[in-house]
Fold these 4 entries.
Entry 1:
Amino acid sequence: MQNKRIVCPHCKNVIQEDGSRYPRDGDCYKPEETLVSYLTKLTGDEEDSDGTLSKEEQSEQKKKRQSVLKSKKYIVLNKYIFPSMANLTLFFTLVATSPRLRGLFDEDIQALLFPESQTNRGVERVFERFIDAVLAVDQHTPPEDFRFALIDITQHKIWDQFVGIGPFKLNNLLVNSVLLPDMGRAVSWTSFFATEAYGNISFDKDRRPVLF
């Protein structure tokens, strides 16, 4: 059977169909184009296309352009980013506590987190890319950066999981002599690096109260 090519009406990607029921019209896994365009323009450095502007005029034009883009920040955050975080958090919280929901959604969760990009070859799985981006620090990152606190929170959650399942997976000797000391050292290090970060977390808690 010759493959049929269809176009997703949502993201406009060309999807190749192999004769099975997948992919269906409307199936896509892609960021909102409005969000991509906004962030690209905000981080970009557009040049004077026809070369008629002086350096001073180009600088002023760039400032105006950046000002307009920054004014749209809260629209983008309120429409895309914060609702997405709320939806994902609620979704995973309910799935984690319901065997019925796990059975219904586990395959879809794997499809959400494990795939690699079909357009950017060589990049990591989606979940790895997300973790790398959220926890991005390097040798130039100041110690008060909030990302060190996020790393520490993540390590503590890993600690909690292994402390909880360790006694059911390993004998007491391995738990007490290997698992707990090793995991404890990891937690100690992330806590040490996060000391200044915890004292520097600052945001307006009343602007967007968490309502879930």
Entry 2:
Amino acid sequence: MPNPNPMHKERRHQPFWDTLIRGTPGAYLPRATITGGPHRMFTTAQAGVISTTNMEGAGSLPAGQTYLILALRVFLYFRQVQTAAAVVLGVNLDTTYYHHAISQLYFQLFIANKEYFAAPAWYMPSGGGLAGDVGGHATDAFYTNGTPSHASILRLARSIKLTPFQNFHVLATIATLGAASIATDIDNMAAGEVSIQMLLDGLQLRDVL
């Protein structure tokens, strides 16, 4: 339906997010594994599961909307992670998983098949999340990517504009370090929770009906 008031626009601060992997062993969304890849993100519309994405369309903005990307964020979350061997020993591997994820994950933003930005996960702090430790075997387990403060996010030197129906996506790549692989780590999980998400943070301009 065309906008009856094309000169009237609403501007709001609203992040868009998508998920690389989230869930517990045997119940991961939106994919069962992150082995292989690279994996495309922001290419699936929300289907009633806001925990994985809030995208209205698959890989583009709908009619009447533009978006200015002002910041990029990567959220990492591991809780009470155990392999089968760790279950027997009664130890958590949260810290190991955090270290592997932060050192191996890379993200590239493409708009109309042109790369606009690329950086490792550690370069894009989440700017939120819990801070502290869980005690016991995970006394140094970090709960977020970087300091959980909005002052610590990656603000782009120049904003990146998305226009209606313009295709865009993010490629998530895992570059293994030595014998370690966060993808294999997650495949080997017997217990625990994992969430790896990316947020495009900025200003949404949309029609006022």
Entry 3:
Amino acid sequence: MIFYTVCQKLAHNPSLHKYRAEQIVILNDKLQRLESRPVAPPRQTSQTSLILPRNPLKERSDKEKRKEIENLREQNERLTSDASDARRRTEAAVARTRALERDNKELKLKMGTLLSKMETDDKLIAALQDKKVKFSAVRRLLMFIVCIY
């Protein structure tokens, strides 16, 4: 039950992919230990072996072991797929971050260009306004001279 809860937490929180990888390693170790346990062969007391009744407790424990091994394999597969999904999502997020950073850099360059153009335009406008003022003054002076003569 505790392990099932841990699996649920892992499934709902993809940021724990490192923890998932550790769980996969632990499950693989448990699986290897269970598979490496020797199963004792049936005992024979003499050449005329007696047929002993099967021990239901031993059979049940073997069945339970097999079931536990199968459950561990399934959990291992689930955790492996969850870890690969988390890795894939992380790689996608990294790629998206890189693309956004590149776009941000391009936009900063364009904004710098626009700001410098605005500054140049402001200088041009100020120069044109100065010319206009001077031209207006010259025009008034000419009009005054024309009116006098």
Entry 4:
Amino acid sequence: MKLWPAVTILLMGMTTLASGQSVRSGTSPSLTASAKPATPAPAARPATAAPKPTTAPAPTAEQAKLYNSLVALYMDGKWDDLETALKNTAAIAKLTKDQQADVTYIKTTLAECHPAWWNKTKTGQPLTFPVTLWGQTFQLHFKSGGTAISVQPSPTGRIYNISWPGEKMDNTMPGSLDDFTDGDDLSEAIWKMINNAHDVNDLFTVQKVANITPEQDKKFLRYIEFRGVLAGAYYGTPEARNHIFCLCIGAYETHNLQNPRFLPRRPLGSALLIEMVGHPERYPSFKIPRDLKHIAGGTDNDEIAIWAEPLYHQFEDVKYTLAEDKAFRAMIKSLATANGDVKAALNNDVVKLAENLACSLDLPADVPFLNARTRWLEEHVAAMK
């Protein structure tokens, strides 16, 4: 399995690898007033039937054609064609409200994941540009070359230098998995490096790098590698997201357990399985395997790997919906937010997952957490109808 080479990140001399209407009653007369007939209460009006809910008219053939074409461009990751198609604002304004809501989501996601600098770097020319990741904006200095990122001090602050082979960003040669391209692999590497710059920038604000111990350095390395996986999955195209999901599920295969490039993928693999089993209604295009059970003589890791293999292949083959992709991205962002404390990561390499579960980035230390995740999945798969 071919993956892009590890990224080197330089921290001021410390080298680290770089993841019914009411009725008024009449008024009673005063006991001291002269007797007057009580004012009769106004007659109650007949109850009005509740209005029947209106059903939005079905989209016209023209509306459906435009909407489906925009969704297809998004799901296929054809960002440049999508940018052009979204300029047809007059036709988009005629779409139904539901369709326009989806198009607004697509526009927002495109702006997040395919900013102007992306295409500019394909030329290979040096470029300084602002990048926004996880809601934080910072400057990067790009030049075309091998995948690498470094940090250097300057009188005006830290300078983040980043490089990748710009001419290979659209490479369609086979990548690390069937049906995935070399460009998909590079896309993940780019977002991982940008996330490394983000997390290192955060680190400098809370900790003097010179005071970091070797053990903290090791934990921080694991942390940024994990967060880099999240960045690649969240900011990549849906196709790239499928690619990363496959690798994260594949991280549980026995032959990948000792591969350091797969260890930071395990938390997202676990989060993905927990999400799909816990909320199958969000993912109707997928068939959740029902045969999760203990394997005689096997480990929890073997059990998860064998059970999840059909999902691995579904991410290679299934064409799922925009709503499902939105749910996947929301899950990834929630995972990134729950594990965004850089300072805590220096002393704790346990990733917080949904359902009060967790995953350690230290494989031997993950055994009790893996056991809890496996028991949770067994119980919830058994309860699925």
